[in-house]
Amino acid sequence: MPNIRQNVLILYLESSALDSRCIAWSFYEGASNARHDAGDSDEPPYPTGLAAMRDGWRLIQMSPLQQHGSGDEFRVGYLKYEFLFEKLIDVTGGGASK
Amino acid sequence: MNDSGAERLSTLQMAEFAARGFLRFDAVVPDSINRRFLTDVGHVPDAEVDSLWKHYGNIMRSSAIPLVNPGTPLASAYPEDSAVAELLRLPLVRGATASLLGTEPVVDHHFLHITFPGRLYAAAGQPHVAQHTHQDSTIDPRQAFDVQIMYYPHDITRDMGGTRFVPGTHLRVVSEAAISRYQNIRGQQHMVCKAGTLLFLHHGIWHGGGRNDSERLRYMFKIRLCPTERQTRLWDTGDLDELSQLRPIFWNPAPSNKPSIESVLMNPEPWFEADTGRLEMINRIRLWRYLTGDTSWDADYWMTRVENEYA
Fold first, then answer.
1. ipTM of the complex in this document
2. CB neighbours of B202 closer than 8 A, spacing ≥ 6?
3. Last residue of one domain, picked from the residues B226, B260, B278
4. In chain A, what residues touch B211 (CB-CB under 8 Å)?
5. Residues B89-126: pLDDT tens digits?
C-alpha cells in the first residue's frame, strides 16, 4: 500500500510563459522533515518552469491573466506569474527528497 | 533638529533611494558609540545567555532604550548623552535623515531586534527559522514615505543571518505578511557588514530577519521615522539640473556611461517581471516627481507616452 506525500515547488516567472525566466521560488516538503527557509538560496532551482517540468514536477496551477482595473493600471503588488508544481512521493520505507 | 554641519545627500544618492528603496552606509558609526550602545542596552557575553525570554526580559527592563510615544519629535526622543543620540548627531545621519524626511521628523516606533543562536530557540521550544518575507505595517498606498533606520552595532557575518531585503520592492503595494510565501527572490541581499553600519530603508521594502546559525547573539536597532512636511528638494540639489537629460534608448550603439538621474532610476532589478518591470519605471518616475516637485519630469518617455492626450 503506497504512502503518498506531496512536495510543492512554487516558481515565479518573468512572464506568463512557462519557458520564461524564474525570478522567485519557494519549496515546501511534505515528504520529509527537510525545511526550506526564507533566504536559504540566492539562485533558483530551475531556470524556467519548463525546466522544472522536465525534471518531473507536475504543474497543478498557474496565475490567471487579469484585466487591469480602470485607474489602477500602473499599480504593482504581488508577483504576477505564479506557477505551482507538485511531486507525489511514496514515503513507504523512508521517503525521498527532491 | 539642528542642521548645521549635516551632510545632505547628493542627487544621485536620492535617485538611488527612489529607485531601490535603500541607502547603505558601511561602518560609519564610530566604535566608541557601538560599544556604548551594546553596554547601554544590557548586552552580556553570549555564553552567559541561557534563555531568550529571560534575556529579552532583562534587556527590556534594564536597557537604556527609552519608552518613546509615537509622534515624539526625533530631536527629543533620546537622552542627549545616550549612544543613540550621539549616533543621530553624526553629520552623515543628520544629513541623510534631513534629506529624506526634513528637519522635524517624528518617531513612529523603535525596537531592538535580537536574533539568537539555535540552542536558545531549542531550549525555549521555539522554531529556529528565518523570518518570513514581509512589508512592514499595513497596506500603504502613499507617495510620501517613512524611513526605517537599521543600525548594526557589531560585525554581522553571513552565518548570523543578517537582515534580508529585496532592493526595488518598496513601490509594490501589498499587505504585510501576505508575501510570506515568497522564500527567495532574485537579487535579494543579506546584511553582512562591519560594526557601525546603517541601512536607511523606505518603509515599503520587502524584508525579513535571517536565521542565526552562529553561536553569537545578533542585535539590530531599528527606528521608524515619519516626515512632518512634504519631502520635496530636501537634499543637496545643487547638481539636480545638470544630472538630468533625455537620452535615446533601445537604438543606441554606445550608451553613455556618465551617471545621470535617468541611468540610476531606470536601472532594473534582477527580479523584475517583463511587463511590470516597466510599471516599476513609471512608479519610480512618479516618486521622483514627488521628490522634485516637477510634475512634468520624465525619463525615457515612459510617462509622456501615456500622458500624450489632447482635448
1. 0.95
2. B17, B21, B22, B145, B146, B147, B170
3. B226
4. 37, 39
5. 999 999 999 999 999 999 999 999 999 999 999 999 99
